[in-house]
Amino acid sequence: MSKPPILFVHGAWVNGRCWDSFRGRYAARGYTCHAPSWPHDERPVEELRASPDPALAGVGIGEIVAHYKAKAEELGGKPILIGHSFGGLFVQRLVSMGLGCAAVAIDSAPPFGVLPSFDALRAAFPVIKVPGHWKKVLTMSEDDFGATFANGVPPEERAAAYAQYVVPTPGRVYAQATWSPKLVKVDFKKQDRCPLLLVAGGDDKTISPSMNRANHGKYAAGPVTDFHEFAGRSHFLIAEPGWEEVADHVIDWVEAQLA
């Protein structure tokens, strides 16, 4: 029996290249993997950093979710969905639409109804303090990357990780996550949906594990909805040292659901 394809969904400040390690590991287990970037982000990291497409400023949550919905439908509508950060929120939205055969939301941004923690507000402050951030393309500073995003990456490796992964992102997604609840609403009571796993990093300074636990608690009884926390891991647990344990736990859980 052939294995379903995997559709990876990344979050803000990175593009689809952040999944390269997961893709290689899962390909070795026989999976076909797809990791498309957000609209206007489908270029090498170096090019995106040097000259971001001005059209990126107009990309919001609706456009990104529609982008991945179309990708999922191209794959038959029932791929394995794996998202990180904002991508975890988008995966939950896709699950609410009836897509996916199994889904994983890693360090997910909060759907409507899940309140941000102090750490989350502090991590978002460099964006929301920028005048007119909702119509601008922004870049995370190397200091913020090390403090709130990749604090699990050894200090001597952070500069290289920053150069390898960080790209400009539209401030629009942050504004909409705050002011457009319809765009971040999830159907927590949907009964005819695929199994869902929420994963948290115990030392996440961007999306506190308490937020992921609260997110998990919003789902009504019925379809499988599991939660797992990796102690001592940061928000960037998909690419920091020890990512292999995260990747293996995720795909082992998926395979158990599909057995």
The level of helicity is 25-40%
Uncertain runs are none
The radius of gyration over CA amounts to 17 Å
Q: CATH topology, which one?
A: Rossmann fold
> Which strand-content bin applies to the residues?
5-15%
The largest pleated sheet is described as:
6 strands, parallel
Total DSSP helices? 10
In the CATH scheme, the class would be Alpha Beta
Mean of the pLDDT scores? 97
CATH superfamily annotation: Alpha/Beta hydrolase fold, catalytic domain
Q: What structural class should be given to the helix and strand makeup? A: alpha/beta
Question: Any idea what the CATH architecture is?
Answer: 3-Layer(aba) Sandwich
Distance separating the two termini = 11 Å
Shape: globular
* Largest sheet: spatial strand order: 2-1-3-4-7-8
- The succession of helices and strands, N to C, reads EHEHHEHEHEHHEHEHEH
Total beta strand runs: 8
Whole-number total of structural domains: 1
Describe this structure in words.
- The protein is of the alpha/beta class and 259 residues long.
- The protein has a single domain (6-258), classed as Rossmann fold (3-Layer(aba) Sandwich), CATH 3.40.50.1820.
- Helices cover 40% and strands 12% of the residues.
- The protein has helices at residues 20-27, 45-50, 61-74, 86-96, 118-128, 142-149, 155-165, 172-179, 209-218, 243-258; strands at residues 6-9, 33-34, 80-84, 102-106, 137-138, 169-170, 196-201, 225-230.
- Strands 2-1-3-4-7-8 form a six-stranded parallel beta sheet, with helices on both faces.
- Helix 1 crosses helix 10 and helix 3 (61-74) packs across helix 4 (86-96).
- The protein is globular.
